# Entry
Amino acid sequence: MRFGLGPLSIEKVSNKTHVDVYEDALEQSVAAEWWGFDSVWVDEKNFSSSSFNSSASVIAAAIAQRTEFVRIGMMPLMGLVNAIYLAEEAACVDNISNGRLIFAGQVPSDSIARGWAGSNSPERIQDDIQVLRKAWGGNPFSHHSEFHNIPGEMAVHTIAAGLHKISVQPKPAQLTMPLWLTGNATASDVAHSEGLPYFGPAILTRTELKAFYQEHTQSSNPAKKFTACSDCNCTSVSSCQRIVPLAREVFIAPTTEKAHELAESAITELYKSFVSNGDLKDFKDFKELAKNRFIIGDPDTCIEEIYKYQEELGINYMVARLSYHNMHPGETIKAIQLFGKAVIPEFRMFGLPDEIRKVL
Amino acid sequence: MGKLEVGVGIWSLQSTKTGPRHFSYLYNELIEDAQFIDQYQSISTIWQTEHHFWYDGYCPSLLTVAGGIAAATKHVRIGQSCLLFSEHNALRVAHQAAVVDQLSGGRLDLGLALGYRDNEFDGFNIDRRTRVPRFDEGIEVLRRSWADGPVNFDGDVFKVPDVNVTPKPIQKEIPIWVAAVGENPIKRAAKLGASIILSDALTLDQLSSHVELYYKTADEFKVDVSKVKIGVLRRGWVAETNEEAHSEALPSLRFLLREQLGGWRYLVDEKGEPVGFDRPKELDAAAAKLIRTHERTIGKPERVLRGLKEIASTGVNHVIFGTRFDSLPRKKYLRSLELLATEVIPYL
# Structure
């Protein structure tokens, strides 16, 4: 199992300057790198009154500058503009970070797509993916579809006449850019057909997520008959290379009571904003909201919960938010540290003796 | 008019034929340069430059890279000379510029140009002939995006509904600089009340007349330009002696200018036809002429100081000191920046 931190909370906080909000997010990235996380994730939100981050690539470049080893998961919105822009920006971040980028395209909501006169249809997302793959590939390319006309080959562009192709530059540092998807059912369908790792919606409960992860539960549970996955020539669970990621609200503290005390108001506020956006039905209380949805507690509780997701959904890459905008940044850093010391080793250190496990 | 500000640039992040480098090296070197410059608060701005689909990887995504510069620095402003605005989606530029401005604590100077290469417009499937309306409408999209409330813009090129772009920039108004090559662009910038970046090909006399035209036009249209900057790109290099500076910088500068003039095809003859590599003598002559202009800011500190004061006397109040030449030893390059920051700018 691998672990990421995020998506980082880059939201409006009263009594705090904007610069400090970004600085907190960058410090959390550095802490995650130090405490052994595999990746740090940044998304983008458009037309949101509380968000300070409408450009994942700008923040990803900043994280790349502050960190040295940790991978950077960038979740830009797709389907809104010519995909060449996304390809170029990702290649720049990949070079700033010496090849540490994971590109996890986000399928936008209907309202965001409308704001940009873009589209969140499966056809559009698939077309963007094709442009990205061609743009990052080694050869010059052309791409003519309902959504892109690359190059335009307009008669008026006489100096470009006869070329028929373009080459997007610079190329990423990595030979193959990791390409994942995140978002609603459209994202799930496209990810499935394109063979891409996919994040199920973080706001769904574990039970609700099963529909999105059905394929993987078969291949990950040794008790069941093994079925090879569609995009990996695996013959057994141990030879399967497929990445099955999951993003969750997580918070950890030395005791479960303390974890709840710190996390409840922070996560409640976040989820109220999802309710007001129409992404989630209104909830009665935090207990009802958290059930089978959030991972909150002491290290043992968190470990136990993550095992459930591993067993029931077949996940092998957990991205834990841990970072909430209305929480004191010092508490977030402490949670990152505790998660790195107490939870990650449980899943990474096969054969860890109990005597060592207990030492924090 | 005020004191002459000096910024440095222009970072293109090219892995050239004569100085091929891994792109990660180039991007990391930019970040190191930014930190080096940030310690000298006398240098006001770092300037980036953009092209698309060019064989040597010329940087295409300036605002993304600016995020890295912002995280690496605390004082220096971050500018673009220039972002090829007509080749972009203005709403995307509005979002990214606002985030860079926020992340940097209000240090963005957004430099915009029309763009001119057929290959770039064709790659994006944008008719080059629409570049002026795209630019003008794009500026309006930026201004509405950064103002309180929804954008609500219905132009011929850009149509943006009543969405509210967030976050807003930290600066009340992100300074917009416009590349102004020729009389019409200067007049257009003056009408907008935008700061300008004049061409690196202008002599001192030409600079004076361009500056005069800018203020005359602003006056005519009653635009308040009291806070604008009049910038110009001048290639420059500082060493302990004039001889060292010349021997270090001139061969690289000659090569760079010749490649730009021939490859980018912005040198045109009297018939308006672009002059390419197929007309080498004309290219050489044009490069030699340009070098005579730039030589005045290449030399020991006293000479460069004199050259910058000459430029200031034309009414220009910001020089983009172009020190980025290909394949020069890094130690000498950093020494040139240090001398500029400590032995030249403080005496302006």
Remarks:
- Residues 260 and 266 of chain B are 8 Å apart (CA to CA).
- Chain B touches chain A through 64 residues (CB under 8 Å).
- Chain B is about 45% helix and 15% strand.
